Amino acid sequence: MSIADPPIRALYEQRRMTGDGVHMVARSYEKGVRLDPHMHREAQLVYAAKGTMQVTTPKGRWLVPPDRAVWVPALLGHAIDVLADIEMRTLYFEPAWLAREERSDSLDNEFVVRVSPLLHQAILALFDQASSDERIELLVRLVMLELHRAEDSATFIPLPQEARCRRAADIVLADPTRDYEIETLARTVGTSARTLSRLFSAETQLSFKSWCQRARIAAAIERLSTDANVSVKQVASDLGYASVPAFSHAFRQVTGKTPTAFAEKT
């Protein structure tokens, strides 16, 4: 896996440096683009001001619609799939800068953050060419403060590492609309239902049923984020829910909000 230069000057449309260990890069990507697995020497906060992407790390898949951003620690391998045309705004933090700032251990692991209106405006303001060094420094500190209050795992799908369990997970992710019976899936991957159930719980900290529901809701989030014309009723039907209320209940269990409320934010 390659270590990308920090940042790759020739590939980016806009690049700024604070002069104090924080770099800022703006780039547009079209739907369907894939940034193959790579890593950076810096930690990153990756934000799509518009559009939806999926970030995959060894731990799992992070769906990143417009009201989310993802924190990627330094030297962590990751890939990015663009699910809808995006306007990406990325902040790169040099490890020495983070060490001086004495940030919490939570920044040692990847996570998705819910982007509040304040965090959204702070990130965009960092790319204002008229900003002074003093304003940029204050904005960077505001972004870091907001990171510690905004972690959100609702759009995260943990990926198991054990071979049989991973094969089962991949089958579900290939078509999360189906209602999978664990007995049938276990036979397909060459194990027992009891073993597969135990593996899912151990490797993802979710029961098989809960994991499948999260995969299904992630598919719903992707659809709502990338298709402005689709209705909640259509998404519920396509994902196999018996009714819109049943879909809304499951959606709220995972994300904390209704599909309609989520769609209005994207």
Automatic annotation (TrEMBL):
Kindly name one Pfam family recorded for this protein: HTH_18
Sequence ranges assigned to domain HTH araC/xylS-type in this UniProt record: 166-265
List, alphabetically, the PROSITE patterns matched: HTH_ARAC_FAMILY_1, HTH_ARAC_FAMILY_2
Q: Does the keyword Zinc apply?
A: no
Q: Which GO terms describe its molecular function?
A: DNA-binding transcription factor activity; sequence-specific DNA binding
Keywords, sorted A to Z: DNA-binding, Repressor, Transcription, Transcription regulation
Record has Cytoplasm as a keyword? no
Record-linked SMART domains: HTH_ARAC (SM00342)
Q: Which domain of life is it from?
A: Bacteria
PANTHER family annotated for this entry?
HTH-TYPE TRANSCRIPTIONAL REGULATOR NIMR
Name under which the protein is recorded: HTH-type transcriptional regulator NimR
Q: Which organism is it from?
A: Bradyrhizobium ivorense
List the gene name: nimR_3
